[in-house]
Amino acid sequence: TVEYYKDGVKVESDTQIETEIVQLLAPEILTVRKDNINTTNKYVGYKFESTDPVIIPDTVANGEIIKVYYIKDNFDYIVEYYYENIIDPSKSVVTEATYQDVIDTYVDKVIPGYELDKVEGTPLTITENESTNVIKVYYKKARFEYKVEYYYDGELKENYTETKEAVFEDRIETYTPKEDYGYKFDKTFNLPMRVSENIENNVIEVYYVRKDSTVSVQFVDKISGNTISPEVVKEGKVFDIFDITNDVKEIEGYTLIESP
Known about the structure:
The chain is mainly beta and 260 residues long. Helices cover 0% and strands 47% of the residues.
């Protein structure tokens, strides 16, 4: 009789009973048909471990049992890592596991600026076909906040600040103009800007300065409105307060009546 065991458990349905015709009164010694005993690949996913007896004899006594033991084999599985759907072979990990093991974990290999997108192939039940023992981990570029700040004569106008979102490494080239009355555009800082995983670096600064302004001090006859002396032109910026105290003239034949 030949009995087969999988992981120490007898497979009843696979027991082989060999028979042989012998002469009457002859010793009950039977020839072992070794070719009928599978010690290589009887079970998918299993490998031969041993027999009992350790060496299969050429003959056995009537009723003797030969036991054949199989245990689960080990097979490779691979974890692949994809970034924006492009595989990075340098990060792939090949690991060995036992047949029918269930794998539901993997090493997280997120890189700066990325986040987990999806995982394919988990839980993975290890099979004898190593080409199907694959877990695929996908990462995508994450979204990060960035700000546009507006400055007027060097002072931040906080209620004008805009907070937006963009994908990692996006190139930001535009902003919403906010040119207040009396101001003109001066410059920008950090524009264009590449969106970073460090939101402290994701700031665009827009600067405005007051426009140039001039004030004309005119000297006129209050009655006729005629100019009685050349005007004085003072230069400054919009919203400046102009002091004309030193611009008052003494004009022959006239007395100062009023000034701004």
